[in-house]
Amino acid sequence: MEVFKYSLDKSSKKNNCPNCKKQTFVFYVDTETGNYLPADYGRCDREQNCKYHKAPPKGKRGYLIPFLTLKNVSDKASKLVDVNGVISMIPTSQILEQNQKNCFVSEWYLKTSTINYQNNESKYFSKNEEPFLNQVVKTKPTELIVSSYHSLKLQDKLINDYKSNLTFDNLTAFLLDNFSFDEVDKAISDYYLTGTNLCWKNATMFWQMDNKEHIRGAKIMLYNEYTGKRVKEPYNHINWLHKAIKEPDFNLCQCLFGLHLINKDYQKNIAIVESEKTAIIMSIFLPDFIWLATGSKSNFKFELLEPLKKRSCFAFPDKGEFANWSNKAKELKSKGFKIEVSNILEQTSFKNGFDLADYYFNIN
Ligand SMILES: [Zn+2]
């Protein structure tokens, strides 16, 4: 986290707003001297009605990009060969500073490029003649949120408690209608698939175990035993174990469903889908991959995919999500990921939301 030279006063002192004249105005303060900036710099707290906000400008942020060569190719464009030999054309106006081996390139431009920059040194540039220019005075490390874990003992207990009912959860019953007992049994033991009556009778619990075998959480969902579809009426039947057993301080830091499997076989490629159920079904249809699930569309992101960085990955977004996931994959590739996104479902005439397991049931 960056601390700027000038920031809004954190005390409760309110002043008269230069715009609406109400006493709702917060000044900017010099964080080093404690002095206020002139009375027109500040923000009015009447966000709906007034919106006055005059901040000392920050200038353009630029990131340090080390290069092998950087040459003007026209009066508007420069050719940069980075330290990995990757060639980029950069608008010369976006090179904010340069020396023999490094240059600072504007964040605005880098965001749309494939140049890797996010952990690089950065600073702010300005040609502005503003009397008060903001700048970073120090950088504080961002606070890391520490994940809570469920104990293996709790997992064992819940698995054994449910087994003593001598019945199957609805999803397992559906799987047994479609696959052999041995196939389903292997999938259950690989993924620790567990039935539970904690929230609803014969619901299914999906354990999120990470690659260090820590249990990050468990999602509980109810399925229809005949169709294998989620029960979403009269409400979406979804909950988390830590909520069901009332652990209010549990800090949920999700990981990919199935992540514990990645260390079991380094020869296998990784396949990523959205739904946990689909990962399980695909592990039966195509056992040559290690199947993982994001659990939601938005969980296809760096934080969850990071443990897969060195592995070859293939992602299969649900129908309609191809564009989103491939944009994300492009960003991840620029950070060194080996990840391809399949458009197999986009080419079908199925409706949006259709997933790879639906497709395999259809062609089998
Ligand atoms: Zn105001």
Give structural notes.
With 364 residues, this protein is of the alpha+beta class. It is 20% helix and 26% strand. The two termini are 52 Å apart. 30% of the residues are buried.
The CATH topology annotation of the largest domain reads as: Dna Topoisomerase Vi A Subunit, Chain: A, domain 2
The tally of beta strands, per DSSP, is 20
- What small ligands are held by the chains? zinc ion
Global Rg: 27 Å
Q: How many domains, as an integer? A: 4
What features would you highlight for this structure?
364 residues; alpha+beta; 4 domains; six-stranded antiparallel sheet; four-stranded antiparallel sheet; 9 helices; 20% helix; binds zinc ion
Short description:
It is built from 9 helices and 20 strands. By secondary structure, the protein is α+β, with helices and mostly antiparallel strands.
Topology (elements, then pairings):
Layout: E1 2-4, E2 6-8, E3 25-30, E4 42-44, E5 53-54, E6 60-72, E7 77-82, E8 87-91, E9 95-98, E10 102-106, H1 107-110, E11 122-125, E12 136-139, H2 152-163, H3 170-178, H4 181-191, E13 194-196, E14 203-209, E15 215-221, E16 238-240, H5 241-244, E17 269-273, H6 276-285, E18 289-293, H7 302-305, E19 312-315, H8 322-333, E20 338-341, H9 356-363
Parallel strand pairs: 17-18, 17-19, 19-20
Antiparallel strand pairs: 1-12, 2-3, 3-4, 4-5, 6-7, 6-10, 6-11, 7-8, 9-10, 13-14, 14-15, 15-16
The structure holds zinc ion (ZN).
